[in-house]
């Protein structure tokens, strides 16, 4: 049974910090990418940060220099440290895990999503 357990969201004042985590279990095959997306009402879900199994990272321009994503491969857990939070960071943050396997010579990617955790930054 696939489970993505997110934790660490909450309410913080502008300029403050939060750390969210995502623990994955029951994921079949190799976990390649772990990441965080966020969504606000009426808007599309957007990538915040992602990290590969090898440690390569990507960040949305809006969070570069403020957010740091990391992972513990042994625990299948991803973390995101969010510093200097702004009211515009307010959103539901979703953990995303991609696992991959090869079938008939082709790479197949499976996406899994967490239930989301609310991050609210007050001005």
Q: How do the strands and helices of this protein lay out in sequence?
A:
Blueprint (H helix, E strand, L loop, with lengths): L2 E5 L2 E4 L4 E8 L4 E10 L6 E7 L4 E3 L7 E6 L4 E6 L8 E13 L2 E8 L3 E6 L1
Parallel strand pairs: 2-11
Antiparallel strand pairs: 1-3, 3-8, 4-5, 4-9, 5-6, 7-8, 9-10, 9-11
Shape: elongated
Poorly predicted runs of 5 or more residues: none
Percentage of β-strand residues: over 45%
Query: How many angstroms separate the termini?
Result: 40 Å
Order of helices and strands: EEEEEEEEEEE
Number of helices: 0
Structural class: mainly beta
Mean pLDDT: 95
Percent of residues in helices comes to under 10%
The main pleated sheet reads as: 7 strands, mixed
Please tell me how large the radius of gyration is.
15 Å
Q: How many strands appear in the DSSP assignment?
A: 11
């Amino acid at each position: 049974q696939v489970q993505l357990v997110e934790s660490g969201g909450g309410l913080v004042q502008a300029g403050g910090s939060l750390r969210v985590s995502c623990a994955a279990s029951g994921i079949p095959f190799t976990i390649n990418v772990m990441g965080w997306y966020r969504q606000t009402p009426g808007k599309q879900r957007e990538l915040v940060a992602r990290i590969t199994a090898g440690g390569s990272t990507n960040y949305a321009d809006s969070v570069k220099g403020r957010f740091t994503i990391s992972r513990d491969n042994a625990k299948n857990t991803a973390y995101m440290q969010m510093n200097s939070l702004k009211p515009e960071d307010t959103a539901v943050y979703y953990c995303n895990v991609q696992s991959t396997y090869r079938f008939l010579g082709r790479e197949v990617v499976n996406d899994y999503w967490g239930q989301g955790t609310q991050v609210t930054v007050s001005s």
